[in-house]
Specification:
With 165 residues, this protein is mostly helical. It contains 6 helices and no strands.
């Protein structure tokens, strides 16, 4: 968990700045940087899928937030509630009963990635119209479902095959 959280924190710094650079492109609408949000939670979903212990995703999210704060995330101290919320959301979805691990991974990735939009909405973007928030949420959910969910499930399956679990 610590390795995944550290990797996630280190990777999230340049990804966050790249997302901000997407927002600076004149032809792209505000919030387009959310297309990269799935990369932020890949590590949290992977921890939840690989460790398979209660609290793994939530603890990874919290630790990832601390790593990002230490490395000067552009969010500043806001990264702590964002990362913790991402971890808690992924944890809640991965704890759902059933055999559909892939579907849970997609949903955990999508909801976890898009939870950052809701945290930012309540803490920073109170004046933004709901249409902009909805646009950002949909982009973030799609990114999380594809990058964190699909890719995370594939990586977890490969790791389990290699380790013989």
């Amino acid at each position: 968990m610590a390795i995944l959280a550290a990797l996630g924190g280190v990777v999230s710094i340049p990804v966050g700045y790249a997302g901000n650079m997407l927002g600076a492109v004149p032809l792209l609408p505000f919030g387009t940087g959310q297309l990269l949000s799935g990369v932020h939670v890949l590590w949290i979903v992977l921890a939840g899928l690989l460790v398979r212990q209660r609290g793994a995703a939530a603890a990874t999210g919290a630790l990832k937030g601390l790593v990002e704060l230490t490395l000067f995330s552009f969010h500043g101290p806001l990264i702590l509630p964002i990362a913790l919320t991402e971890g808690l959301v992924a944890e809640a979805v991965l704890l759902l009963p059933g055999r559909w691990v892939g579907a849970r991974a997609y949903l955990a990735g999508g909801l976890s990635a898009s939870s950052n939009v809701l945290v930012l909405r309540f803490l920073v973007f109170q004046a933004l119209p709901w249409q902009v928030i909805a646009f950002m949420w949909v982009l973030s959910f799609a990114s999380g479902a594809i990058v964190s969910g699909y890719l995370g499930a594939k990586v977890a399956r490969i790791m389990e095959m290699r380790l013989g679990n």
